[in-house]
Design a protein that fits this description.
This protein is mainly alpha-helical and 178 residues long. It folds into 2 domains: 83 residues, Arc Repressor Mutant, subunit A, CATH 1.10.10.10; 78 residues. The chain is built from 7 helices and 3 strands. It has a 3-stranded antiparallel β-sheet with strand order 1-3-2. It is elongated, with a radius of gyration of 22 Å. The chain starts with 13 loop residues before the first helix and ends with a helix.
């Protein structure tokens, strides 16, 4: 019998699966340009059924108060995590966007604002220098202008995708496939 025909039965319980998900999401976060703790906090909030306090997050992820506080602030700056007021509670509680497509839209917008827009500005500035007629200046202008145009086009495409309403990823992918 081929291995691919064997039924795989997962024997993980909830806590093991949650830990594995949060850990994996944290590792992936570093590939996307955010730190591991920041990604783990977002993942933990993403699978939580209720808002979590800073103490809950610290305890579950085994990270310091300073690390938790700093990363929660960054996640709030990104618009991914929000504070939630629970009547009668003095602690601050936090939650994250649960809609995967809305979360992707928020992240894409923020990455464009923080990463792509500054590059576009520099490329535009550099490609607009005065042409002194030398070969090296012409080459610098030509290459940076090509990069500027490519980056601007890519950013425009991303903005069009994220500005679509519901199911923007699915609709956009279908348009690309057609």
């Amino acid at each position: 019998m081929k291995v691919s025909n064997i039924l795989y039965i997962c024997t993980m319980n909830y806590e093991e699966a949650k830990i594995k998900f949060v850990s994996t999401w944290g590792s992936l976060g570093t590939l996307w340009g955010i730190n591991k703790a920041m990604a783990q906090i977002q993942a933990l909030l993403f699978v939580s059924t209720k808002p979590l306090s800073m103490e809950d997050i610290m305890e579950q992820l085994k990270i310091s108060r300073g690390n938790t506080s700093m990363n929660l602030r960054q996640l709030m700056d990104w618009g991914i995590v929000t504070k939630e007021i629970i009547p009668g509670e003095r602690k601050e509680y936090f939650t994250t966007e649960k809609n995967v497509q809305e979360l992707a839209r928020t992240i894409a917008k923020e990455r464009s604002r923080r990463e792509i827009q500054p590059v576009i500005k520099v490329l535009k500035e550099v490609s607009s220098i005065k042409d002194d007629g030398t070969e090296k200046t012409k080459e610098l202008i030509k290459q940076t202008k090509a990069l500027y145009e490519l980056t601007e086009t890519a950013d425009d495409m991303i903005n069009k995708l994220v500005n679509h309403k519901q199911n923007w990823i699915t609709k956009s992918l279908f348009k690309l496939i057609k």
